TrEMBL record:
GO terms for molecular function: protein-N-terminal-alanine acetyltransferase activity. This is [Ribosomal protein bS18]-alanine N-acetyltransferase. GO terms for cellular component: cytoplasm. Its EC number is 2.3.1.266. Belongs to the acetyltransferase family. RimI subfamily. It catalyses: N-terminal L-alanyl-[ribosomal protein bS18] + acetyl-CoA = N-terminal N(alpha)-acetyl-L-alanyl-[ribosomal protein bS18] + CoA + H(+). Gene3D superfamilies: 3.40.630.30. Pfam families: Acetyltransf_1 (PF00583).
Length: 153
């Protein structure tokens, strides 16, 4: 994939109309423990703490991120980039966007990442996230997760 200029990309709030396209990216990214369609609809329509964003290139959704804002804490629930657009800085761009969004009301942000997901951990570390511990059997397949934190202030 050729590198896209940031002017070609748009980040906006995710809507219910985006769920099927986001779900396609979710399935290709997380085959062992992907979210269900119902989970995405629930997050958008019923979870008052949830905020979801998509990155678009023209009419295509190429990345998404969800987070919860609870009092002064932000938690990234899911984030992924379409496999055809990985390693082009889009994940880093989206992560910085949601960190900035959350910093308006929150002081810290956390997330969980699979232990073997070196690519994602590198992106998080580059954004300032630090190791915070292990959540045993966090994923549906029994794999542990590394917890990471960053200060937003």
């Amino acid at each position: 994939m050729e590198k896209q200029s940031n002017q070609d990309l748009k980040i906006r709030k995710m809507t219910s109309d985006d769920v099927l396209k986001v779900y396609d990216i979710e399935k290709q990214s997380f085959s062992n423990s992907s979210w269900s369609l119902e989970a995405f609809y629930h997050e958008l329509e019923k979870n008052e703490f949830a905020h979801y964003f998509v990155v678009t290139l023209g009419e295509d959704i190429i990345a998404y991120c969800g987070l919860w804002l609870v009092i002064d804490q932000a938690q990234i629930t899911t984030i992924s980039v379409n496999k055809n657009y990985r390693n082009s800085g889009i994940g880093q761009l989206l992560l910085k966007y949601v960190m900035n969004f959350a910093s308006e009301t929150c002081t810290t942000m956390s997330l969980e990442v699979r232990l073997e997901n070196d690519t994602a951990r590198h992106i998080y570390e580059k954004a300032g996230f630090k190791y915070g511990g292990i959540r045993k059997n966090y994923y549906g397949d029994g794999e542990d997760a590394k917890v990471m934190w960053v200060s937003l202030k």
